[in-house]
Structures are given as structure tokens and as C-alpha cells.
Amino acid sequence: MRMTAALYDRYGPAAEVLKVVQVDRPEPGPGQVRARMQLSGINPTDWKSRSGATPRPIDGFQVPHHDGVGVIDAVGDGVDQSRVGQRVWTWMAAAGNQWGTAAQWCVLPSRHAVPLPDSASAELGACLGVPAMTAHRCLFADGPIEGKNVLVAGGAGAVGHYAIELAKFHGARVAATVSGPQKAELATQAGADLVVNYRDASAADRLRSFAAQMDRIVELALGANLELDLAVSGPQTHIVDYAAEPEDPVLPVRKCMNANVAIRFILLYGVPADALDLAAADIAAALRAGALTELPVTRFGLDEVARAHQAVEAGTVGKVVLEIP
Ligand SMILES: NC(=O)c1ccc[n+]([C@@H]2O[C@H](COP(=O)([O-])OP(=O)(O)OC[C@H]3O[C@@H](n4cnc5c(N)ncnc54)[C@H](OP(=O)(O)O)[C@@H]3O)[C@@H](O)[C@H]2O)c1
Questions:
Q1: Are 69 and 37 contacting, i.e. CB atoms less than 8 angstroms apart?
Q2: Ligand 1 nearest atom to the CA of residue 269, by list position
Q3: Which residue among 127, 170, 258, 259 is least crowded, i.e. fewest CB within 10 A of its CB?
Q4: Which of 139, 159, 186 to mutate to test the pocket of ligand 1 (most atoms within 8 A of CB)?
């Protein structure tokens, strides 16, 4: 049987290398499930992999995208047959796997396809994987956060959004930074207790009055924000950075020593498997409790995959998804 899939077989600009073609439908191997996809969610890592900016190996061709929502219709050896018919959200579907979610069917390891409760929309399920897993690792890599103070930089971004929601679900106090009123509204809706414009001269004072010392700072622009971060850092602070800026920052070592701050870096592709499984389980629990919400969604057809990648590259606010026919 054939299926429609978006794929690329070399790195390059979206309009040059992404094509929508017919390919043989894959069969699930041992330990894998196959899902009939409904929506495929796009993240910055997907266009960075496709463009070659942060290349991932291509095994002949690559169906892009880690995130999506679909229904399991076949399982491989060793997977419980009762999984057939489950509506699932996917995480890291395309990591070391040709068959990402931008196709009518996706095959992936069983543990990367997690049941989606009926109460959760398809849009929410399609946009969780990369951002929520990253947010979870940033929050929990250095221990529990109940009753702790968390600062989320870029609280209206996808990772920032789930960092706020997961931190609140786990009993933390949360401050977030944004660049303007539209994003402030999104961070407030996500549940941040304080939202501050990081461009305001009063940002450090307002954060200090919220917490003299943050326990976690979930950071995506270490160079741009380090001065602000250090203003609310001390020996109990872990700054956890999950994104690279166009230019690597120069680290003010003496100021970091004075603060006795710890700085951790995270890249989802290298997070230990047990931490990823814990993240998936915690996200599933938060979903069941109704603690996670979707960001505004911009939809494209599968045949518009190149335009959809361009929209993500251009920094569309919220999430971009493909509708799978
Ligand atoms: N390490 C990993 O495993 C991992 C996982 C997921 C994502 N990432 C990376 O993390 C980045 C964000 O991903 P995403 O999906 O959350 O993107 P996104 O939804 O586009 O969000 C990015 C947010 O960052 C904000 N921002 C930009 N500069 C900022 C600054 N100096 N201070 C505070 N906020 C700032 C943006 O808003 P304003 O510009 O309006 O401030 C925007 O709201 C991407 O570079 C992505 O590749 C890495």
C-alpha cells in the first residue's frame, strides 16, 4: 500500500528540498507502533535539521517532524495488541527514524506514542512533544520544584508556555518574561504569577520583588538575558539554557562566581532515556488533569509543508501544524 508523505533527501531551503510524494507505507518493526496521523506539529528543530543549520543524519530520505497526533493502527512484535485504536501524541518521532509525523502514517518506538485523553484537543496533542519534553527537563533536571520560584524567559514561546504550565502544575511560583502585550497575555493565560517585559528598565526590580533568588531560570537567550538572570540568582539558582543564540555569548565568569550560580545546558537529543520517559509520564498526567493548554495554532495542508516550515522560520507566534489528509 502507498501513502502520501512530505520528505527531503538533502539539506537546503524549504521550497527547494521539501517534496510531497507517494511512498510505500511502512510496517512497524519490533517494539514499534504505526499511527495514522491527523496533525503534524512543527518545531524550530525540524527546519534547522532540514536546512542543515543543525544537521541530523539522513538515511536515504527523511519524513520530517517529531510531534503529531494520530491513532495507532498496527503494532510490531513485543507491543501489546490492545494499543491498536489508541489516540496518541508523539515525541521525538523523527530522532534516528526516517518516518517522522509529516505523512499519512508514522512508525515509531511504542514508548514515543503516548495516549491522549479524550478531553485534549488534537491541536494540543500535536504540539506537545518537543516543547513540553524540553520544558520538563529544564524544570526537573535539578530536582523537584514544589514551592520553588521559577523564572521562565520567553513565556509566550512554545517551550516557555509549557514550562509555565508544568511548573504551576507541580506547585511552583512562576514569573515569566515577554517582549510585549500580546505575549504578556499568552503568558498570563498559561498561569504565570508575574509577567514582566524584559525590555523594561524596571524588569530586574520587578523580578527581585517577586523572588530575591530564583530556584530555576528556564532560559533561551543566555547572552541577552544573563544580566537580568544574575540579578535574581544565588547559590540555590540553576539557570537552564535550552537554545543557542546566533552568536555565542562571552561568559562574565566573575559575576557568575559572585552569584554562586549553576548553569546547565540541555539538548533534547541527548537527554537520558529515563529522564525522557519520566517527562512523557508527567506530561501525560498533566494532560489528564487538564493542566496543559494549546497555544494559538496556524494550520497548513500537508502539500503546503514548505510554506509551513517558512512560517516557523519566520517566528510565527504560537504553533504551526500540518493537516494530514
Ligand atoms: N535544546 C533543545 O532540546 C530545544 C528544544 C526545543 C526548542 N529549542 C530551541 O529553543 C528555541 C525556542 O523554541 P520554541 O519552540 O519555544 O520557539 P518559539 O515558540 O518561537 O518561542 C521563542 C520565544 O522566545 C522569545 N524570545 C526571543 N528572544 C528572547 C529574549 N532575549 N528573552 C526572552 N524571550 C525571548 C520570543 O519572543 P520575543 O522575540 O517576542 O521575545 C518567543 O516567544 C528555538 O531556538 C529552538 O530551536 C531547543
A1: yes
A2: 3
A3: 258
A4: 159
How confident is the model over 243-265, as pLDDT tens digits? 999 999 999 999 999 999 999 99
Residue nearest to atom 37 of ligand 1 (CA): 154
Going by alpha carbons, the residue nearest to atom 24 of ligand 1 is 154
Residue 195 lies in a domain: yes
Closest CA to 237 of 160, 149, 165, 303: 149
Q: Is residue 180 part of a domain?
A: yes
Question: 204 CB less than 6 Å from ligand 1?
Answer: no
- AA identity, residue 99: W
| CATH number of domain containing 123 | 3.90.180.10
Question: Residue 58 domain-assigned?
Answer: yes
Identify the residue whose C-alpha is closest to ligand 1 atom 22: 157
pTM: 0.98
* Total number of domains in the chain: 2
Question: Which residue range(s) make up the domain with 93?
Answer: 2-127+294-323
239 lies in a domain? Answer: yes
Q: What is the amino acid identity at position 187?
A: A
- C-alpha distance from residue 244 to each of 143, 294, 317 (Å): 24, 25, 19
User: Model confidence over 85-143: pLDDT tens digits?
Assistant: 999 999 999 999 999 999 999 999 999 999 999 999 999 999 999 999 999 999 999 99
